[in-house]
Amino acid sequence: MGIADTFEGFAAGFEAAVGDDNWSRLEKYLAEDATYLNVGGPDQICEGRKAIIAFLKADVANTDRRFDTRTLVALTAPEVIGNRLSRRWRCTYTLAGAPDLVVEGEARYVIEGDNIKQIEEEITAVSAQKVDEWMRTYGDRLHV
Known about the structure:
Shape: globular
Strand content: 35-45%
Radius of gyration: 15 Å
Largest sheet: 7 strands, mixed
């Protein structure tokens, strides 16, 4: 499996897990000692496959599922340089009675063999500001 194939499999598995809550499907893509860095976010680093999967599951439950809908789109094709892959993305969250929350960022991966060794997620500074403003204004309307 190539770097792009590993990434695409992980990304598809993540989206499927968002839908059905079966997070175990991600295990085969992550190295046992993988790290996840949430650049600029709370709980900035997770170490180990199990910790990363637990973080992703909790993050989806605490954020994505509290909105009516979530739509993720790629802004760029995956760019591969050596064993590194990056892609810019946009996620739009909707909630009845509130304007859409649009968040943009970049995901960066280090892939060794068929496993993801490192993931870095970083939202743009503009998006971070928009999230803060949206949460202050509409956050109390999110589903519990």
